[in-house]
Amino acid sequence: GDADSFCPVSTHKCPFGNDKLSGIPDTSGDTYKGWVFKWTNYIKGYQRRWFVLSNGLLSYYRTQAEMGHTCRGTINLATATITVDDACNFMISNGGAQTYHLKASCEVERQKWITALELAKAKAARMQAESGKPREVMRAKEEQLMLGSKVEDLSTCNDLISKHGSALQRSLSELDNLTLTGEAGEKIRQVTERATLFRITSNAMINACRDFLSMAQTHSKRWQKALQAEREQRVRLEETLEQLAKQHNHLERAFRGAAQANASADSKSISGPGKGEVSDDDDNEFFDAMEEAPEFITVPADPQFHKRSSSNVSSFNSEICQDDQSVRILLVPLKKRRTRIPDKPNYSLNLWSIMKNCIGKELSKIPMPVNFNEPISMLQRLSEDLEYHELLDKAAKSHNSLEQMCYVAAFCVSAYSTTVYRTGKPFNPLLGETYELDRQRESGYRSLCEQVSHHPPAAAHHAISDRGWTLRQEITVASKFRGKYLSIMPLGTIHAIFEKSNNHYTWKKVTTTVHNIIVGKLWIDQSGEIDVVNHTTGDRCHLKFAPYSYFSRDVARKVTGVVMDKTGKAHYVLSGTWDEKMEFSRVMQSSRGGENGTEGRQKTVYQTLKAKELWRRNPLPDGAETMYYFTALALTLNEPEEGVAPTDSRLRPDQRLMEDGRWDEANAEKQRLEEKQRTARREREREALNQRSSSVPHENYKARWFEHTEDKITGEAVHVYKGGYWEAKDQGKWEDCPDIF
């Protein structure tokens, strides 16, 4: 029961159905493999060869086993020509010495290869053409809006093609089943075959369009965010220059006052300093005059201001106040965090050989290699809930509890935005393992997690911000592997407390489902309902995460919610998606009406004002697809840091080896750590047995930084932070920490 639980690794699935030889991958991957007959010579004729299409290159081998060491030939498709000879034959030539005469096993198989080759050729030619051109900046927001409109049209067309194509195929299949003879039967057979080929080509086009849609939306939003960031930076710089101008004006006035006072003192003095001499009192008089100016303005220590403008402002500061210690502007540079980790290695693993005996079992009891992991622990993943901490900052400033509820609900949804592409599982923490996330200087908060229980596995989390809020939770994860999908059910309550208003909120997490575990492209869905409750005022927000449905006309990953006061009156309506953004609208009037809902009840109709944006997901860093799809925050979580506790996840050796790409060593180290944990548990059990035999009361395992108590709000047995960690860090005293690594 000490091993890590399952995290799946994807295998590409053919969108045209099952195929024994090969399958065209979705366009998120560039590899297509399969057996094809290749013309060798007049003696041997056509011989079966293993062909691999990857990154615009078509290579072939005599056998699959040769892929690791002996390539028999390669053609670059960017400059190649593809010619179809007859029903099964086709030819590929680069115009030079390389020409492949190929034959597929059937016409459908040939068409699959032709479609894959044409797509790969177009992509390779486009990449070759763009490689020598500089990237251009988007011209204006109008062009982005136009692109968005066209992308929406493309998405609609994709859905219609898929829908009507499937309907056509069903109709033709039904027609084919009719008992017809002669010429009519032959015509129906020909039409059915042509429809099958059309569906193959259409599906390939749909996949390409879907990827184009995703990439266009991603790049459009990335440029919009960059443009907005530049605008905000310009405003901050303008404000800073205005403040510096005022500051300079105050200094000039103070200097003139000091000079006048000095001249007056010199005229009354019998003997003052001679020409070329310096008075020891000049500086003191200058400082006294400065201290008489209460309207003196300092530069704001905004975290973004530190990051973008600290060097410029520091130079201004040194010129204006180089001799004035009483009004020194201190801008301490923030620590520069890393923006990359080593790329994920491309290691293959037979998933089914591991999973076929695990159906129905608790996943935390299934031993798993690191190949299914991502190089962070569950404690670090839990800390990622603070990715959008600024929502809690805004909630803390809110004077209205219902508006505050909107920000808390948006924060609740934002925690899932990091999961949309993250199909790897985090490392199961060892008992006593901790993780600190100190962002007090950058963002005002400090966070601490500790693994407080091993059976069942439970992690306690406590974060406090000097901007007026506290977040705490204890989460236990239950999970089941059901053959085709994996269900992950987080158990536990999350608490958010705001210092100024004393409002205390609680909510729970929804169920996460990982689909296509064995075959197909992995994808994540979140589904369920959440009640965010303000126990101080009685306000409530009911959030609904709609499960994905192929037949639904709604946008995927949809989230809706209603904010109500203690009487049940609706004040705000929330809408959006858990992977992109959330908006809120003020309710002006509500009534019963509209279409009937479930069980014949009428739906409530809300008349609302124009929606405003509450939250929007940050774009992923460049190259995220090769770095486990980590966000900017996630890339920094496992960055080595001095002064942390010896039990900190950053010091876990198997996790560090995996991040460095040394997976074989990581697997060996993982087994050593798990065995060490089992040995420690057996030792505790022996001690407990001895204590019972000697009539000494047995004490269960106690967490180091959290104490077990009953929650006053929910009545649940939970672990609550008891203090002392940050003080121990300041003093460097870690003697009471267990040796777990």
UniProtKB/TrEMBL annotation:
PH domain ranges (all copies): 29-122
Which residue stretches does the UniProt record annotate as biased composition, category Basic and acidic residues? 649-689
Q: Which InterPro entries match?
A: OSBP_sf (IPR037239), Oxysterol-bd (IPR000648), Oxysterol-bd_CS (IPR018494), PH-like_dom_sf (IPR011993), PH_domain (IPR001849)
UniProt keyword list:
Coiled coil, Lipid transport, Lipid-binding, Membrane, Phosphoprotein, Transport
Q: By its UniProt entry, which SMART domains does this protein fall under?
A: PH (SM00233)
Coiled coil (UniProt feature): 220-254
Which membrane topology describes this protein? Peripheral membrane protein
Ranges annotated as biased composition (Polar residues): 261-270
Q: Where in the cell is it found?
A: Membrane
The cross-references to CDD domains, in alphabetical order and at most eight, read: PH_OSBP_ORP4
Origin superkingdom: Eukaryota
Q: Which GO molecular function terms does the record list?
A: sterol binding
A GO BP entry: lipid transport
- Under the cellular component aspect of Gene Ontology, which terms does the record hold? membrane
Map out region (Disordered) in residue numbers. 258-282, 641-696
**Annotated PANTHER family:** OXYSTEROL-BINDING PROTEIN 1, OXYSTEROL-BINDING PROTEIN-RELATED
Family under the similarity heading: Belongs to the OSBP family.
- What name is this protein filed under? Oxysterol-binding protein
- Which species is this UniProt entry from? Oryzias latipes (Japanese rice fish)
